[in-house]
Structure formats: C-alpha cells, structure tokens
Amino acid sequence: MNDARMEVVMGIIMHGGNAKGQAFQAIQSAKSGQFHEADAALESAQKELVEIHNIQTDMLTREANGDHTSVDLYMVHAQDHLMNAITFNDLAMEFVELYKSLGK
Fold it and tell me: Would you list the DSSP string of 54-76?
C-alpha cells in the first residue's frame, strides 16, 4: 500500500475514532447535567464526521473518474470505524436529548 492510500485509510480511522470519542463525551456530559458541554462535544463529533465525508467524497469522485479504489482489509477496517462512529453519534444525540428531557 502506498503512502497516499495509507493516509486516506488512517484519516478515516482517526476522524472516526475522534467522532466516536466526542459522542461518548457528549453522553457523559449530559448524564452529569452538563448540557452545554454535551452540545459542544456533539458539535465536535459532527465536525469529525464532516472530515470523513470530505475524504469519502474525494474517493467517490476519483472512482467516478475511473481511478478505482481497491478494497482491502485496511479499507474495510476504516469503513468499520466510520460506520461505528456514525451510529454512535446518532445514538449519542438521542441520549443527550433524553437526558435534557429528564432535566438531569
């Protein structure tokens, strides 16, 4: 795997991990009644997901232009991180709203 491809894979993994970590922090903050901090963590998570979206948009554009992206274990692993981050972020938003409605 060349350096450029590894940079793409690691970017997805890194931003996915950051997004999931921020989403987890949002839940913990909301659980403690710190809703401003929870909202800020969700915003940070969303910014990380936007970074991944930009990486994927670039990959999709290249694919559409005939520059095929090979699917290997590294890319599968990166996509797994991304999907987990998206799912966790979606659930974190729901948890934060639930804690807000409970007035914790």
Answer: HHHHHHHHHHHTT-PPP--HHHH
